[in-house]
Automatic annotation (TrEMBL), chain A:
Native species: Winogradskyella flava
Entry keywords, A to Z: Lipoprotein, Signal
Signal peptide interval: 1-23
Domain of life where this protein originates: Bacteria
Protein name: Outer membrane lipoprotein-sorting protein
From TrEMBL, chain B:
Keyword Repeat: yes
Any one of the GO BP annotations: xyloglucan metabolic process
Keywords on record: Repeat, Signal
Biased composition (Polar residues): 527-548
Protein name per Swiss-Prot or TrEMBL: Sortilin N-terminal domain-containing protein
């Protein structure tokens, strides 16, 4: 009987602890622990994801590369053509124009904001204080029918139409397993400005001791979006840094059109 | 070991207990609704009532609109477009205030509209956002009902004044002026008169935050009267931050006062304006003080300044010129001579409630009206409407059975309309059709003919519109010999019959019946109301300003329904609390509501829903808010009204107006309240708020479209909101929710052949309503969200061959996965450019859905059917399928050839005879130069093949002779190319190359 009481006490105490005593830092600590441990994540130099973007049954294969020093690119496979989008070499941001198939630079503002993203690698919450980020537990919220902790992540201010603005994301950590199942961002510019975008995460799987969400859905909050499933994750991939460089001389290499 | 066992047993018991505790017949909907999400279809073309406009003190691009029933909207582009920022909270807004010390971050919102017409919504307190509107926190004032102003000290964010107008329908002590000095943590009431008098307007001297001006207003509304004014109405001034207040009436009219407005000129704080509602007409109107309220001079009592003070009482002064002032009103009035003379503002929707000037350029003006927000670029001379504010305020909606079905409804001050539930490119402004003027209320479509009934206020007009022949006739029942004067409600009830298509009912105090669509009327009841003469004194209504618009007509019938089982059973509900039933077509009537447990007497019967499941069953929704009773009252009878049982629970917030019964599952009910939509899955034992894109908006009417199972909400502030296909909710039971995965049954999906052109030029800044999904939807319930491990979904044919891969939803509750009923795209030959990718549709038939979750697999089947509207025979369909798949295979074959050529070329190079020939062949197969736009090269085999492939696969029709002819040319060319390739290939040393097999190539 004594044991029973003790057991009950522990159970209630334990329960009480998880319900009440979570701080933002504890949640993040547990999260990092659950996805492989901060130490292992700190060792990462780069990630290459092989993904399929799926919209209602149409699949587009793509590769996403992100490196520690901020370089990144998305390579979409369209009918065997590898088309690079959202490429950043640390200074220059560029995309491929789908009409001319030639590289075009993004705005300087977008490039400046991309530089800030460097600190997000491999996970914005890893060493977040060193990055100058701050976190705040906003409370609990139900997402996907599931109880979550809503954590506000404030990163370094970003440029919006020439002005510095707060760079805030909301992450929703499942209260059971402490991994984020959704992330929301206020759209900062363009006609959608002011609306919330949302990404949901699922299918967490282990890759060499680290956990990654193998499935993501992205769109406007409360509206259908598109999905992305991950086929493979390569840690510390071997990537030629030239692949990120803006192809300055591409135009001159093009043969003149016969027409 | 023993101890462990005991512990284990105990733990299991505990678990079992907690499971048991949840596992009675109550079902929590919030965890079930999942992907079931609403879509908004507007309309926005007539928009809706605006209560308060607000600018940003330093950024002219930012404008806020606080709306009467549709929440807070923010513009980031100087009023070109707006986005909602307050959807999760009460949508009735009294005041929006930006903290001038921190204007990008801190926004205060006071809920509850303040232009106190009969149909106003209520508020539920004060809110603040500290991050520009992304997150909100409540700061009390739950019972304030209406907040008129919020002013933040421009030098101290912690100091905030809140003017509470307070309850409209009854006594309340939560009124007057409140002040916080700790940013909202604590509040003190600094000016209070009595429980009938609230603060209608508050202003601060821009040069001295300790100087405040407050107008207190004595007012009261009932269901049958309105009273503005009394001895307590007054204008006060404080010079010590609200500690002491003095009346400033020097020069004011004698006698009682009504609603007063107050404004301080930003350019000269000694100049004040007030608009006064007084006893004598000649003493009403605009007054000015040039000595900060010491004395007042009357300047003008034009109609534009004195009209309906309870509805229009806002003065706006040009921030740069104290002699330019605008007064809200029927048209809005502007003076450029310090208030001596006025002219109307430019043409716009009538009833202007608030106006703001741009912070830098006074030529730019924003006006909030009964019909949305208007902008002016020339000082108010011409006005243009903001086109993306879907704030329409429906009193009632109904649907027809067309394809797509139409939604009909009447709007506050915006007539009556109908529009489609789906349209090419989304539901646009131009898709809506006007079907009545004035204030619109009930609109019903004739059950079998293309005839629409609509009405304006008080059944002043009831229109019968023959849509096909464009013929309009007014058919309202007129006074008849031997009967008393007719009393119609402002929102007069009409009803049609399920049994006799031409039958049409209307209710005054009597029930009127017509068997010929309103040409002839007979009265088939005695006075069914209480006929209380005290509630029939509308000509004395208004207080200091008479206001007999008909909006207060009372002791009238409000809702009528004929039983779906028996045309002789008719239920009638009255605004003074009677539920009358006849079982013999009107010969005899019984009042069933004389003694309903828990229901205050004379509570307004807002809606009666006669059950489609049982003749003796009906639901009644009572609305007590006009008696200052905000409790939701919903009752069910199963014995023709002999007894009524409440089916509400404490889970419901806000008084209720309408209930909709599901046609299939009698336990599934939908309830519209002042604060949103509630759903019960267990016959009313428990209710859950539905929030997936349904804001906390007042829902006045709900309909359920029978063919589509779409739940259609008529909201009073956010237009029409539709939840497509609620049928999954019918299957929810304790058994179903305990399953790990449960697939919902669905009707066969029609692969739609119909399409159209959307040509939307010039509509960039317009609101466009979202269309429903028309693709195949796989719907299932997950007991728990899937977060760890792989979960995938495939469509297979019945032999297990993969047809398509889908991304399954992972939510706890209902998941909806879309499949565009197309098979995987064929592999396409690689060229220099890309070509159109053709994904043919899957043929009609049954398909397997295979859901793999971890190690477990769940299967379900869905059915696709062809669109009968296309008029194709089975033979046509088979032809189309054969030719399409032939082209599909050809496309992949060509892709494989090009792959092989590329592989060979890579191996041998082009600097030899074989290489040159291979390259020459390739250049005839795919484009090898140019780009995807105007630099495009001459099309080759791949492009020609794709062209005819797309033409055939994307046509509704079977292949035409012309197309077949074209195909044969391509086939010939392809067959020659294949031969040429084989010849060349035989010369290449392919054995030493690692060429993929055709199958591997396709799966790569």
């Amino acid at each position: 009987m004594k044991h029973l009481k003790l057991f009950l006490f522990t159970l209630i105490a334990g329960f009480g602890l998880t319900i009440n005593a979570q701080t933002a830092d504890e949640i993040i600590e547990t999260y990092l622990e659950n996805i492989g441990g901060a130490e292992s994540w700190n060792k990462l130099d780069g990630i290459k994801l092989s993904v399929k973007i799926n919209q209602g049954g149409m699949e587009i294969p793509a590769e996403i590369v992100r490196l520690k020093e901020g370089k990144q690119m998305v390579v979409i496979d369209i009918q065997g053509q590898k088309v690079k989008q959202n490429v950043f070499d640390g200074e220059v941001l560029w995309n491929t124009n789908m009409m001319t198939q030639k590289a075009e630079k993004g705005t300087q503002e977008a490039a400046e904001n991309m530089k800030l993203e460097k600190a997000n690698f491999p996970d914005p919450f890893l060493n977040y204080k060193d990055k100058g980020y701050s976190i705040e537990l906003m409370g609990k919220e139900e997402i996907d029918g599931t109880n979550t902790f809503k954590i506000k992540l404030t990163k370094s201010p970003m440029l919006v139409d020439g002005k510095k603005e707060d760079n805030i994301s909301y992450y929703f950590f499942d209260t059971e397993n402490f991994v984020p199942i959704a992330m929301q961002n206020e759209i900062k510019s363009g006609p959608m400005k002011g609306k919330m975008s949302q990404i949901t995460f699922s299918d967490y799987q282990e890759v060499d001791g680290l956990y990654f969400a193998f499935s993501m859905t992205q769109g406007l909050k409360d509206q259908p979006g598109f999905s992305m499933s991950v086929d493979g994750v390569e840690l510390n991939p071997d990537v030629d840094v030239k692949a990120f460089e803006y192809p300055e001389d591409e135009a001159s290499e093009e043969p003149k059109d016969k027409n | 070991m023993k101890k462990i066992t005991i512990q284990l047993v105990f733990f299991l018991c505990l678990v079992a207990f907690s499971v048991q505790a949840q596992d009675d017949s109550k079902i929590n909907g919030e965890a079930i609704f999942g992907d079931l999400t609403a879509r908004h279809i507007g309309p926005a073309l007539m928009s809706g009532r605006i209560n308060d406009m607000e600018t940003h003190p330093t950024n002219p691009r930012i404008i806020y609109a606080g709306t009467a029933g549709g929440g807070v909207w923010k513009s980031n582009d100087t009023g070109t477009t707006f986005n909602p920022i307050f959807d999760d909270y009460c949508q009735s807004i009294g005041a929006v205030a930006v903290d001038p010390n921190n204007p990008d971050k801190v926004i205060w919102v006071g809920t509850g509209e303040t232009w106190t017409r009969n149909s106003v919504s209520i508020g539920d307190g004060l809110y603040k956002s500290e991050d520009g509107g992304a997150n909100w926190k409540k700061y009390g004032f739950e019972k304030s009902e209406r907040i008129a102003n919020i002013i933040v000290n421009p030098k101290n964010s912690n100091e905030v004044y809140v003017a509470v107008l307070g309850a409209l329908w009854g006594d309340s002590e939560e009124r007057g002026i409140y002040k916080t000095t700790d940013a909202g943590a604590t509040w003190s009431k600094i000016l209070y008169t009595d429980e009938r008098t609230g603060c209608a307007d508050l202003a601060m001297d821009p040069s001295n935050p300790n100087i405040l001006y407050a107008s207190m207003w004595e007012f009261r509304r009932t269901g049958w009267s309105f009273e503005s004014g009394g001895n307590k109405s007054a204008l006060y001034k404080s010079t010590d931050g609200g500690i002491t207040w003095n009346k400033i009436h020097n020069g004011f009219p004698e006698g009682q006062l009504g609603r007063l407005a107050i404004a301080v000129a930003p350019s000269n704080p000694n100049v004040l304006y007030t608009v006064i509602e007084a006893e004598k007409d000649e003493r009403k109107g605009l007054y000015r003080s040039d000595d900060a309220g010491e004395s007042w001079v009357q300047l003008n009592n034009d109609f534009g300044l004195t009209v309906r003070p309870f509805y229009f009482s806002r003065i706006t002064i040009d921030p740069k010129d104290e002699n330019v002032i605008i007064k809200g009103g029927l048209t809005g009035s502007i003076s450029r001579d310090g208030g001596k003379t006025f002219k109307p503002l430019g043409n716009m929707h009538s009833d202007i409630h608030d106006v703001v000037f741009d912070i830098n350029d006074s030529d730019r003006i924003y006006a909030g009206t009964d019909g949305g927000v208007y902008r002016s670029w020339n000082g108010g001379t011409t006005m243009e409407i903001v086109e993306n504010l879907p704030l329409s305020q429906f009193y009632h909606i109904s649907v027809d059975n067309d394809e797509p079905y139409n939604v009909y409804g009447g709007l506050q001050d915006n007539g009556s309309w109908y529009g489609p539930s789906r349209s090419t490119g989304g539901i646009n402004a131009r898709d809506w059709n006007s079907i009545g003027g004035g204030d619109g209320f009930r609109v019903l479509r004739h059950p079998t003919k293309n005839i629409i009934y609509s009405e304006s206020q008080g059944a002043g007009n009831v229109w019968r519109y023959d849509v096909d022949n464009e013929l309009i006739k007014t058919i309202q029942p007129l006074p008849m010999k031997g009967h008393a004067k007719l009393r119609f409600n402002w929102n007069a009830p009409m009803a049609i019959s399920k049994h006799q298509p031409d039958r049409f009912y209307m209710g005054s105090q009597f029930l009127h019946k017509s068997e010929d669509m309103g040409n002839t009327w007979e009265i088939i009841s005695p006075d069914l109301t209480t006929n209380n003469p005290e509630k029939q004194q509308q000509e004395a209504s208004g207080g200091l300003s008479m206001d007999n618009s008909g909006a207060e007509n009372h002791t009238t019938i409000f809702t009528i329904v004929e039983s779906p089982f028996d045309e002789n059973i008719i239920w009638v509900g009255t605004d003074d609390g009677n539920i009358q039933i006849t079982k013999d077509g009107g010969e005899n009537w019984t009042n069933t509501s004389l003694d309903i447990p828990g229901l205050p007497k004379h509570t307004w019967v807002y809606h009666i829903e006669a059950s489609v499941h049982d003749k003796a069953t009906a639901y009644a929704v009572f609305d007590g808010h006009t008696m200052n009773d905000m409790t939701p009252y919903v009752y069910r009878t199963t014995d023709f009204g002999k007894t009524w049982t409440s089916i509400t629970t404490s889970e419901i917030t806000g008084f209720a107006r309408n209930i909709q019964e599901d046609y299939v599952n009698p336990n599934l009910l939908f309830l519209g309240t002042e604060f949103g939509l509630y759903i019960t899955l267990d016959g009313g034992k428990s209710w859950s708020k539905f929030t997936n894109n349904v804001p906390s908006v007042a829902i006045h009417f709900i309909d359920l479209q029978k063919r589509t199972n779409d739940l259609v909400l008529g909201t009073h502030g956010r237009g029409v909101i539709i939840i497509d296909d609620i049928s999954p909710l019918r299957e929810i039971s304790p058994e179903v929710i305990s399953k790990k995965v449960h697939f919902f049954e669905s009707k066969p999906t029609v692969m739609v052949d119909q399409s159209g052109f959307s040509g939307n030029f010039g509509a960039e800044t317009q609101f466009v309503g979202r269309n429903p999904s028309r693709v195949a939807q796989i719907k299932y319930l997950l007991k728990k969200r899937h977060t760890f491990g792989k979960m995938t979904m495939e469509i297979q044919d019945m032999d297990g061959n993969k047809v398509s891969t889908l991304s399954p939803g992972k939510s706890k509750g209902i998941n909806i996965v879309n499949w565009n009923y197309r098979i995987k795209q064929p592999k396409i030959a690689k060229g220099k450019t890309t070509t159109g990718a053709v994904s043919p549709r899957a043929p009609a038939g049954t398909y397997k859905v295979v859901l793999t979750k971890g190690k477990e697999t769940y299967e379900h089947s869905i059915e696709l059917v062809y669109d009968a509207n296309a008029g194709l025979t089975d033979g046509d369909r088979a032809d189309k399928q054969d030719v399409t798949m032939k082209l599909y295979d050809m496309t992949q074959e060509l892709a494989y050839i090009v792959y092989q050529i590329d592989a060979i070329l890579e191996n041998t190079g082009t600097d030899n005879k074989l290489g040159k020939k291979m390259l020459a062949l390739k250049e005839t197969l795919v484009i090898t130069t140019g780009d995807n736009y105007v630099g495009s090269a001459e099309p080759q085999l791949r492009e020609l093949m794709t062209q005819v492939f797309a033409k055939i696969a994307y046509s509704y029709d079977s292949p035409s002779p012309n197309e077949m002819d074209n195909l044969s040319i391509i086939e010939e060319r392809f067959s020659k190319a294949k031969k040429d390739f084989e010849k060349l290939k035989s010369k290449a040393k392919t054995k030493s190359m690692e060429l993929q097999s055709f199958e591997d190539f396709l799966n790569d």
